[in-house]
Amino acid sequence: MKQVGRLLLSLLPWIPGLLCGLMTEDQFTVLEGNSLILPCHYEPQYASNVKYWCRGKMREFCTSLARTDDSLLESQSEDKVTIFDDPEQRVFTVTMKNLTEEDSGWYMCGLELGGFWEADVRAFTYVKVSTGISVVNDRLSGEEGRGVTVQCLYSPKYRESEKKWCRIGNSSSCLVTDDEGSYEDVSVAITDDKTGTLTVTIKKLQISDIGWYWCVVGPKQTSVHVQVLPRPSTTAAASTTNSFAAAKPSVADADDPKQRITNDCCMRQTFPAQSVVMFASFMLLAALAILAMRIGKHTAPAFNSPATQMRMRPVENE
User: Fold this and answer.
1) Would you say 144 and 206 are in contact if contact means Cβ atoms under 8 Å apart?
2) 271 φ, ψ to 5°?
3) Cα 71 from chain centroid?
């Protein structure tokens, strides 16, 4: 009976965890040396609660990095990690600056409830800091005769390294930036801002430009695919204008990015759904308590029953 009671009490702190009041992305990837801006969305009832950001996947062993109730908020702008809460938009934003590979790991968005029997509302995410080079969009497409631009991001350690734009399978096609970090001809323009971004612009696409390319920074490289769409004829473009306008979705039908945000517990729930979950949780606890009492009642020895007294009465000697 006591064990059942302890079980019921242990379930109480986790009832708030059944309600998805906090959400963020499952994973964020950022290139070494860059910054990461990470949003944590919460339900309206938590607008006045303290928000925090910590490293780890267990609250008891999570290293606190930033809190909204920190008295040194004004000086946080110079720190590596800052936090900002916007109650009207129901989101608090965490900014991590100048990330290194050692910063990779599990992190937690948290809402502090403060009650003895209440566990904090939490959402976990994994931050992956990569080194070398990455590309903003590795699939480019554009209409024939128009231009497309690709941005290649690289780590600070490669700022002074040689930068190239090459067609895969043709080493003689490589275009190399000069000492100023630029290259340009009639078809391609390359610019290195010397801070971590290499920008390549193909000015006028041709069908022959279709294929795979390397964006090269020092010893590192990443692939980019370029697709060229045939230029539509004037007659075909005019005939499809009305049908396109009719089929174009309204703003209300557009995907809401918040609806794609997930966390470790479940998808976003509405308040009626939360009420149902809370009610069901307490009903479950009540049912377990009643069941425990009945089990205890049926298993208790009946010392006072007449049958028991007769069996326990000593036999008299004749």
Assistant:
1) yes
2) -60, -40
3) 28
Q: Which of 198, 242, 204, 256 is nearest to 226 (CA)?
A: 204
**Residue 65 CB neighbours (<10 A):** 18
- Whole-angstrom distance, CA of residue 54 vs CA of residue 93: 13
Tokens of 102: 């050692």
If one counts every other C-beta atom within 10 angstroms of the C-beta of residue 110, the result is 24
Q: What Rg do the C-alpha atoms of the chain give, in angstroms?
A: 32
Question: Is there a contact between 167 and 208 (Cβ–Cβ < 8 Å)?
Answer: no
List the structure tokens of 284: 């479950």
φ and ψ of 295, to 5 deg: -65, -40
Q: Write out pLDDT tens, residues 53-108.
A: 999 988 778 888 999 987 544 444 457 899 999 999 999 999 999 898 899 999 99
Query: Over 60: is that where the pLDDT of 268 sits?
Result: no
Q: How far apart are CA 83 and CA 290, in angstroms?
A: 46
Tokens, residue 79: 């720190």
How high is the pLDDT of residue 297?
Answer: 62
What does the block give as tokens for 55? 């490293």
Q: Return the sign of the alpha-carbon dihedral for residues 131, 136, 142, 146.
A: negative
Contact 129, 25 (CB under 8 A): no
Question: CA angle, corner 141, sides to 135 and 145, nearest 5?
Answer: 125
Sheet containing 220-229: give its strands across.
139-143, 220-229, 211-217, 163-167, 170-176
Helix (H, G, I), strand (E, B) or coil at 20: coil
Half-sphere exposure of 43 (CA within 13 A, CB side): 17
pTM over 0.70: no
Cα angle, residue 259 at apex, residues 257 and 263 outer, rounded to 5°: 105
Residue 313: what pLDDT? 52
Sheet with 188-192, strands from edge to edge, namely: 133-135, 148-154, 197-202, 188-192, 182-184
How many alpha carbons fall within 13 Å on the CB side of residue 143?
4
